[in-house]
Design goal:
Layout lengths: L1 H4 L2 H58 L3 H23 L5 H26 L6 H22 L1
Helix pairs in contact: 2-3, 2-5, 3-4, 4-5
Length: 151
């Protein structure tokens, strides 16, 4: 009778080993898939930040040249929104605040200055030469930042 049961223990252990190997491979595959998905998410966030900063740069260029009050309000609103969107995407990336502090500060300044100019336009005040120079300075800084992002 004992001779007939000797195969039960090795069979159970063999099945447990097979189940453990299948489970381990499944966990390994899932980990790799999640890693790829997370990397893709971070890449998309980075390119979204880049796109928003490019839009800030383009709209700053347009705002410097525009003479229409309505057009400037629209452009400045778009600049403000793009800067906030870029900040939002930047905050979701897995990098430290110290690495993004300069960028966040720049985007915040662009958004705040755009809001200030919108308020002036709504009061009926046109852009002054000094304000256009500030827009040109911000546009130049955004161009530099875009070049850094491209690298």
């Amino acid at each position: 009778m004992d001779r007939k049961r000797w195969w039960i223990v090795p069979t159970v252990l063999g099945l447990a080993l097979v189940v453990a190997l299948v489970w381990g491979y499944n966990e390994y595959s899932t980990k790799n898939e999640l890693g790829v998905a997370l990397e893709n998410h971070y890449q998309r966030l980075f390119f979204d930040v880049k796109k928003h900063v490019e839009n800030v740069q383009v709209n700053l260029s347009k705002a410097m040249l525009s003479e229409s009050r309505d057009q400037n309000v629209l452009l400045l609103s778009q600049i403000m929104n793009e800067a906030y969107f870029a900040q939002d995407k930047l905050a979701q990336m897995p990098i430290t605040h110290a690495e993004t502090a300069k960028t966040e500060k720049f985007l915040n300044q662009v958004a705040d200055y755009s809001y200030y100019l919108i308020q002036n336009h709504l009061k009926g005040e046109p852009l002054t030469n000094k304000q256009r120079e500030t827009l040109a300075n911000l546009q130049g800084n955004s161009a530099i930042f875009n070049n850094e992002l491209a690298k």
